[in-house]
Structures are given as C-alpha cells and as structure tokens.
Design brief:
Elements: H1 8-22, E1 29-34, E2 37-42, H2 44-54, H3 64-76, E3 79-80, H4 81-88, H5 93-101, E4 105-110, E5 118-122, H6 124-130, H7 141-144
Antiparallel strand pairs: 1-2, 3-5, 4-5
Amino acid sequence: MFNASVPEIDITGAIQRLTEKYQQDEFSFQLNKSAGGYQFLTKPSYQASIGIMLKQQSKKRLSTSALETLSIIAYKQPVSKTEVENIRGVNCDYAVQKLLEKGLIEIQGKGHTVGRPLIYGTSAKFMEYFGISEIAELPTPKDFSQEINSIGEGPENQ
C-alpha cells in the first residue's frame, strides 16, 4: 500500500514486543499466531467472564459426521467428495454442505478425473477455529497412540 520496505527484523522485533506487553496480567487479551498471521485473543482465564458479560452463546458443536468429514478433508486435502465418501463408507453431501456454510472448508478447484469433480480443502477459518497456523500442526496418528495395558496391569506393575 505504501510501497515501503520494512526489514524483517523490525517486524519480528515489534511482534515480540507486542507479545511481551500483552502477556502482562493487566491485559485481558494476548497476541496469538494463527492462520499464518497474528490476532489478539482473550486470555483463557478471562474467557468465561467475558462470555457471561456479553451473554454469548458458545459455538455450536460439529456433528460426528461433520467432524469425520472435516478430518478426512484436512488430512487428505485436496480431496473430492467421492474420495471422502469412499473413506467414510457413506454419503457425505450434507456434511460437506454444512462445512462449506460454516466456512471451514472451501472449493479449491476441479479434479482431473472423469467428471472433473470439485476438490475440497480446509480454509483460513478452519485454521483459526482450531488455533493452528499451518496444516503441519495437525496431530499425527502417533499423537493418538498410547500403550495398551492388560487388565490389572498399570504402568507401575510392569
């Protein structure tokens, strides 16, 4: 807009100073990295109080089918609806439509297969909603695995 060149070190320094300033207890919000940028968000310790004061309703939860569909799209993107349905084993028209309406996914183009199906991927709102900056921050299957204990055998008995 201004065609001015600002050294990256100046930008990172300013972001660091803002982050440190708003971490102080006198502020109810803080600077968070999200969706490839930064935004001010309410500190977790203030969220309940502010929610009550503003009488906000909490975000509606996603249905199980919508969550399943969203996770397949997030991990397999770019992906067609047919590919999602093949993984889920059921029709997902409604779930895809709801995710599009909520802005959590977006159409990223058309596929190169027969019929040129629409290809879906996650949106910036998805990143913001889940508090991540990039898809690589999604948990991997190893993050979900845990040691399986036999009945009566806890970690202390092994």
